[in-house]
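Researcher: Going back to the complex we discussed earlier. I've cleaned up the inputs and rechecked each line, so this should be the final set. Can you rerun the prediction on the complete assembly and write out the structure?
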Amino acid sequence: MRELTCRLEKIGYQFYKIVKSHYEPLSCRGISFSFQSGGTTVPLEHRAVRFIDNFSTGSRGAASAEYFLEAGYAVIFLHRKEALLPYYRHFNCSQFLEHLAVNDERSHVSVKDDVVPKLLSVLLRYQDVSNQKRFLMLEFTTVTDYLFLLRAAAEAVHVIGRNAMLYLASAVSDFYIPSTELPEHKIQSSGKPLTVTLQAVPKMIGLLVQDWAPDAFIVSFKLETNKELLLQKSEGALDKYQHNVVVGNVLETRKRQVIIVTSGEVEGVAISKEELHQGVEIELKLVDNLAKKHSRYCRETKE
Amino acid sequence: MRELTCRLEKIGYQFYKIVKSHYEPLSCRGISFSFQSGGTTVPLEHRAVRFIDNFSTGSRGAASAEYFLEAGYAVIFLHRKEALLPYYRHFNCSQFLEHLAVNDERSHVSVKDDVVPKLLSVLLRYQDVSNQKRFLMLEFTTVTDYLFLLRAAAEAVHVIGRNAMLYLASAVSDFYIPSTELPEHKIQSSGKPLTVTLQAVPKMIGLLVQDWAPDAFIVSFKLETNKELLLQKSEGALDKYQHNVVVGNVLETRKRQVIIVTSGEVEGVAISKEELHQGVEIELKLVDNLAKKHSRYCRETKE
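Model: Rerun complete. Updated structure for the full complex:
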């Protein structure tokens, strides 16, 4: 716990430095915290061999963060370790050796010509953003890591008020096993069925809105597999937590369409077949929509 | 199911081609099937949002496969999607953009000098092995994928008898939810506790030894968190399945020591502090030990 507290203090300080160095130049472009990627894990043992995870690759968050950066935001990207990252997401890491060539003397390594155009395009954008120090990446794995980071981030961003956007695109575990109920050692398999009882993870959005970052522009996500439930669950979340936006999507169609729910309005955002064919990503449209809403929010007088 | 059967047929054919093309030149160096990496997943819903996973990064399998390849084996590397891979494992994929440089005209990408020596060393070995077509990689994710691949691999390797080694380093799920008991849609979180009942996954080693590849040299692994149980569980597995070797290890010390259990003998293999400091990996010693045992096995008359 002490180690985690120290780590949080370091992170809090990193957040603070980012916030301080970017506040002036950015005016209404806030700091976007991107809570993204591969979901959180729930250990099933203290000396964790097994855990519950979810399917999330972090695709939504990684793509969105890139568009927020291109739109001028500073982004603190909290991500699941090993999940997709902005810029890196365009490449298949498990094949990069295939894109390198060795000269005849076996003394030098170069990048093969066919991959240079794409690499150059992404690398230049990545370097620009890194040189401007507008991009910080921090990892989490378990749901506990995530919740601690969320709180540290929110408290750090409190100082820039409405200029902050909290983009809660992470697939946070809904169920977990409290520390006191975790078995110490690896659960032994004896051929018999195993029953596991999981408790609900407390929802943090309420705390974010009420206490930790009450002025921030807060965007949460709803993922359903059953499209009949989507609108009701999205509106329900907004109603319950009283934050700014819920972005709703159905598992099978999440890369092609989303709904954007605000109080009193539901917008559909989609990619046409033609756009899909041209490589347009839905996050381009989603981020554009949210950045405009965030700008308006910054200009409103606080009630 | 039809798609999976077609895929299996294709894989079976790939295996067959590998086996055919390497049998002669390799004599007693068999085909090593490396069943490695990140463990298998157990979906918790049909339209799977959540699943049970395990901690395994595939480090043991990826390192071992590299040493088997260096020792002259042909390796069919069945691995969890996204897990560590031979050769690639030496690099941190989430930082590769940092190792590239752009020229002043912003027209060309090159590899930075400081990383060239290490890259060159690994790349040359990787290219040699690829050019000799001794290395095939195949992915799995769920425990079902894995079991199907295991069976296809074992049946394909049947033809080279004792020359085949099955290296079962995968962290296979012990528990799963049968298809008929899986909920269709994403389990809704309502604030109430959730109880999940899991059945034991049938152990395949018995089928491998009895039916699928009775002549192959079969190596299985035992991982425990409680070192008091290690020897008993390792010997128990060998006794139960009557295969060739059990490699036992304890979670916390698995990179520094293992036990190698054969009928009638238990050997300890370890890395000294000095060796650790020099970057010696335990898989170097483990693979050397097993390759020697496999050679002896090939020379023995079949009972």
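Model: Worth noting: Chain A has eight helices and 14 strands.
Researcher: Good, that matches what I expected from the previous run.
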